[in-house]
């Protein structure tokens, strides 16, 4: 049969290019090992039609085949991601749609709200199973490297609030407040009066509940609101893990809105994922295509250079830039481990497809941060064309305050 000859040639080509700890099992019982060692990953093909995914093994094709149930894969999830990446890198040309393409996505309030609901409104119980106890869904800060996840997430929040010098009585706006962890900390420890906004109804409901339970309803307001609809003035503004949904073309407008909402002499912090491709392209080998289709519809990642340019266009000056890429690689690895450990419970509260999407997404994200495909930057900014005395002379204040 034609497919038998094509498969044999494909297997031989990969074995010649690299030794993979992979075993391929076909529906008819045939097996192919891609190295002489013990396989760490077993890929099962239940029907001949699924071979088309393998002959063009982009991360998008392999991911789609897995989440749609066209193939099954056994093995440690980190090994699965590593094997998939090597398959793609060794067999595909880094050109065309498999390269780091940049998409042109039209954003609107309605479309952005729909995308947010798709990703965040799975269920609060779903996220509770792999996040920390405070349900912080963004890059943690492992100051010493040996912190547990919950400690590292609190340190991240304190790191942000210390960087922008939140003081008792300050008004603070948190754009994309999640389940409320940052505004709760800002009110409890730093004495701020906070407004947190989200487009996720599940996040909104639980964040309000947590605020009421903490007895902080007089200090914290949670709103179901788009950042484009906010009015007022705030001493401090934070945006953590949100601007990935804004859109590349909308970044100057986004930062202009922050500028308009920021008080004179105020400070803002943008904490978000960036691409490391200077042309603002996606993760290579189809990884970005998979994420757009299954995980973050309409998400767009800018290069840090575009972020800083857009800030300036929006009337903001960047005072401090910190790369936390290795911190996010570790955060995602812990989330992936938690997800694996709670697999049985997760399968009880969601369907198999969503389970598979998130399984490869979390481990794949850790791989992407480790490979320098994506990064994470915290940028402190304030209104431009002002006296340069908003912050202390050195960065020592950040670390002295948390020592």
UniProtKB/TrEMBL annotation:
InterPro entries: CFA/CMAS (IPR050723), CMAS (IPR003333), DUF7884 (IPR057206), SAM-dependent_MTases_sf (IPR029063). It comes from the Bacteria. Belongs to the CFA/CMAS family. The keyword Transferase applies. It comes from Herbaspirillum rhizosphaerae. Keywords: Lipid metabolism, Methyltransferase, S-adenosyl-L-methionine, Transferase. Residues 12-93 form the DUF7884 domain. It holds the Pfam family DUF7884. This is Cyclopropane-fatty-acyl-phospholipid synthase. Transmembrane segments: none annotated. The keyword Nucleotide-binding does not apply.
């Amino acid at each position: 049969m034609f497919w038998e000859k094509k498969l044999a040639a494909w297997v031989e080509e990969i074995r010649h290019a690299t030794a993979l700890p992979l075993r391929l099992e076909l529906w008819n019982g045939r097996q192919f090992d891609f190295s002489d060692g013990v396989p760490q990953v077993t890929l099962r093909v239940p029907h001949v039609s699924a071979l088309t995914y393998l002959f063009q093994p982009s991360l998008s094709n392999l991911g789609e085949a897995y989440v749609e149930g066209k193939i099954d894969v056994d093995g440690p999830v980190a090994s699965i991601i590593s094997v998939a990446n090597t398959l793609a890198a060794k067999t595909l040309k880094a050109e065309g749609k498999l390269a780091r393409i940049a998409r042109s996505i039209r954003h609107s309030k309605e479309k952005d709200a729909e995308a947010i609901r798709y990703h965040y409104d799975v269920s609060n119980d779903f996220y509770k199973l792999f996040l920390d106890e405070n349900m912080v869904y963004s890059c943690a800060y492992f100051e010493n490297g040996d912190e547990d996840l919950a400690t590292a997430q609190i340190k991240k929040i304190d790191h942000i609030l210390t960087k922008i010098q939140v003081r008792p009585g300050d008004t603070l706006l948190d754009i994309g407040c999640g389940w409320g962890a940052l505004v709760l900390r800002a009110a409890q420890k730093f004495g701020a009066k906070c407004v947190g906004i989200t487009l996720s109804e599940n996040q909104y409901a639980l964040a309000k509940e947590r605020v009421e339970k903490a007895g902080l309803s007089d200090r914290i307001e949670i709103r179901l609101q788009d950042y484009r609809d906010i009015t007022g003035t705030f001493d401090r503004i934070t945006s953590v893990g949100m601007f990935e949904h804004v859109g590349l073309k909308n970044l100057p407008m986004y930062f202009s809105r922050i500028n308009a909402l920021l008080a004179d002499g105020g400070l803002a912090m943008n904490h978000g994922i960036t691409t490391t491709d200077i042309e603002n392209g996606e993760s290579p080998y189809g990884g970005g295509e998979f994420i757009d289709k299954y995980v973050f519809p309409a998400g767009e990642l800018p290069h840090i250079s575009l972020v800083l340019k857009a800030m300036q266009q929006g009337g903001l000056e960047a005072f401090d830039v910190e790369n936390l890429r290795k911190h996010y690689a570790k955060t995602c690895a812990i989330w992936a481990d938690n997800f694996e450990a709670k697999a049985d419970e997760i399968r009880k509260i969601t369907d198999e497809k969503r389970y598979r999407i998130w399984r490869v997404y979390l481990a794949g994200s850790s791989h992407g941060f480790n490979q320098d495909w994506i990064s994470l930057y915290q940028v402190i900014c304030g209104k431009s064309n002002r006296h340069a005395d908003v912050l202390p002379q050195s960065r020592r204040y950040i670390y002295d305050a948390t020592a």
